[in-house]
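Observation: inputs received (chain + NAP).
Thought: call the complex predictor directly.
Action: predict_structure
Action Input:
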Amino acid sequence: MTTSIGFIGLGAMGLPMAKNLLIEQPELKVWNRTMHKAEGLIDLGAEPAGSPADVATLGGIVISMVSDDQALLDVSLGPRGLVGALGPGGIHISCSTVAPSTLSTLAERHAVHGEILVAAPVFGRPDAAAARKLWILLSGPATATERVTPLLAPLGQGIHQLGEKIEAAAAMKLAGNFMILSAVEGMGEAMLLAQRYGVDREGFADFFGRTLFAGPIYQNYGKQIATRRYQPAGFKLPLGLKDMRLVSQAAGAVNIPMPLADLLRNRLLESVAKKREDYDWTALELSIAEAAGEII
Ligand code: NAP
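Observation:
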């Protein structure tokens, strides 16, 4: 039996993901709030839909990749939303980075119609999405995660299963972004210290990226911070701010003090106040430099 597949949200991440999906699923239906972003996909054979509800077919699967919690609720519960349109057995795969509590609330709303929500947030930037190099976290009811695994597998380099609790994937995604941004803060401070004593920034990033910190975060972001190339943004700074707010809220809800998350949130808030909304989230490094008297 072939399952009808739909895709909602064709932004920096959604567009390359949908493009890759289209190769496996030539019948793909797509919807984006700003529909002109779908033109390239439609040229490749995707079917345009008039609303989030129209992307769904009864018992089918719809992937959403929208910016934040409100956007996810809008496409799900707003006018002509997805909830109720999928029908019994239908599955909504939410790939956005959102609050754990938003997913549990939305799962309940889907369940009223016999629909299942699955959380599948991803690690990897738009270039990784295009190259099918995403790391996908997956949580939700086992019958649904088993059904969607073959669909998601071609979009990334691996799927990490987190069991039935829908909040788990969201919490792990937020925790991962917190660790990434902590590394950015650490690199920004450390690189500036070394620079003041005559160390070349790019040489610094290259050495640690090859030796003590030989992993993609230190290698890729290290180079970016060393050269201060923050535009064009791969991950827009306001989305990073959204994530650090979500980290603080999620931590607060379970009584975990996270002082470093507060510092990172304030760094990003300062960056927004300084009109750096179009910069990559790593541009919080500029605030570290400015505090140390650097003229950028
Ligand atoms: P983006 O380029 O800003 O795209 C956001 C998408 O959400 C667009 O399709 C936008 O539609 C849609 N949208 C926003 N508000 C909406 C609303 N109220 N109703 C309907 N649609 C709405 O963001 P992105 O970089 O693709 O990120 C998408 C998600 O992936 C976010 O949760 C982000 O945290 C996560 N993520 C991003 C990265 C990354 O490196 N970029 C990596 C991993 C995870 P319009 O086109 O009409 O504006």
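Thought: report the result.
Final Answer: The chain has a mean pLDDT of 97. The chain has two domains: 5-165, 171-291.
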